[in-house]
Specification:
- The protein has 337 residues and is of the alpha+beta class.
- Helices cover 44% and strands 19% of the residues.
- The strands form 3 sheets. It has a 7-stranded mixed beta sheet, sandwiched between helices.
- Helix 1 runs antiparallel to helix 2 and helix 1 packs parallel to helix 13.
- Bound molecules: NADPH dihydro-nicotinamide-adenine-dinucleotide phosphate and pyrrole-2-carboxylate.
- Pyrrole-2-carboxylate (PYC) binds next to helix 6.
């Protein structure tokens, strides 16, 4: 039976757990806000579900829950945020204003987040840049889960990419998608709940197509969306979030990870562009006309619309937390070392 919690109750559950397990106030607050943004928007695979992994990484000493990020300019308009072995949310907060300022000043700016442990959805950082009227793209690599086109061995992470565009009224357009057919977190939740997957998500340990999520997790592989096209996106993400910024590729992250179940060390790449610079004074009216034409097509909605619909409801409705997960988080808080 799931437990119904208000957003405030769930926030306290997460925050207390992080504080009890070695986060300082700033990190506990930042990770909690990230976890709660996912819960509030109906994205449970990157909400409270991730807390046991965050805690495992704190307890094993892989992640420093008191890390204080440092922002530096590597070149004009190219920022490096050194998370110093911490979780991503506080480092993203530290980089946000300098990135916005550089993108406004120059029209385009990039940010490389290094020595970081990312375990969250990417729409959160993209939406916060779009709120400043910038167009933004973000991507991060993970640990091997998918083969390159033609292969059967996992090599690329599930490697998500998010892109956002500001709207004049109403919620921004932000899409955020794994380059795998589905995020691994969704496969884990399907396995937990005993649901079958649609065809095309993964292969079992024998290399045969399967719709059984557990068979994918038990030595199988995930597949990229769209065959070789998704595999090329996954490769691009590796090159941007590791090669370009001097961080670990997915295979390197796995080789150097302590396998505690928490997020490995890696990097994130973010690009921010000011549409007012190239798009001219009427850039917004022009793109609004585009959205209007697109949304007039029957059956069409914008990416992000489902999340924003859920966001409008959860302050009143609260959220459902599986009882086993709720008990696990309470146990991790009460039994903290
Ligand atoms: P989904 O396939 O559920 O959704 C991908 C995107 O497509 C969303 O923006 C969604 O918007 C949009 N979308 C879905 N249906 C429609 C539709 N009918 N019309 C228009 N747009 C639509 O996500 P994934 O399973 O690929 O990824 C889930 C999450 O996992 C992401 O947030 C990602 O960042 C995260 N992730 C994180 C990783 C990490 O290493 N940190 C690794 C891999 C994934 P909407 O939400 O509004 O439905
Ligand atoms: O769902 O694939 C995933 C994922 C990996 C890291 C965080 N989420």
């Amino acid at each position: 039976m799931p437990i119904r919690c208000s957003l405030d109750e769930a926030r306290a559950l997460a925050r207390d757990c992080l504080l009890a397990n070695g986060c300082d106030e700033a990190n506990a607050e930042a990770v909690t806000e990230t976890v709660m943004a996912a819960e509030r928007d109906g994205c449970p695979s990157h909400g409270l579900f991730r807390l046991p992994g965050y805690v495992a990484a704190l307890r094993s000493g892989k992640v420093d829950g008191k890390a204080s990020p440092i922002v530096a300019e590597a070149a004009p308009g190219m920022l490096r945020v050194d998370a110093r072995g911490g979780f991503a949310p506080l480092a993203l907060q530290a980089g946000r204003e300098p990135l916005i300022e550089a993108a406004r000043r120059q029209g385009v700016a990039a940010l490389g987040l290094v020595r970081v442990h990312h375990f969250a959805a990417l729409w959160i950082e993209v939406e916060s840049l779009v709120a400043a009227e910038l167009c933004a793209l973000a991507c991060t690599a993970y640990m091997p889960a998918m083969p390159p086109a033609g292969g059967k061995q996992p090599f690329f992470g599930t490697n998500p990419m998010a892109f956002g565009w500001p709207r004049r009224d109403g919620p921004p357009m932000v899409f955020d998608m794994a380059s795998a057919a589905m995020a691994r977190g969704e496969v884990m939740i399907a396995a937990r709940e005993g649901h079958e997957l649609p065809p095309g998500v993964g292969l079992d340990a024998a290399g045969e197509p399967t719709t059984d999520p557990q068979a994918i997790l038990d030595g199988g592989v995930m597949l990229p969306f769209g065959g070789y096209k998704g595999a090329s996106i996954a490769m691009m993400v590796e090159l941007l979030a590791a090669g370009l910024i001097g961080e670990r590729f997915s295979f390197e992250a796995a080789e150097q990870d302590n396998k505690d179940g928490g997020p490995p060390r890696g990097g994130e790449f973010i690009l921010a562009l000011d549409p007012a610079r190239l798009g001219g004074e009427d850039w917004q009216a022009h793109s609004e006309a585009f959205f209007e034409r697109m949304l007039a097509i029957e059956g069409v909605r914008l990416p992000g619309a489902r999340r924003h619909g859920t966001r409008a409801r959860t302050p009143d409705s609260g959220i459902e937390v599986p009882d086993a997960l709720h008990a696990k988080i309470r146990g991790l808080t009460e039994g903290a070392p």
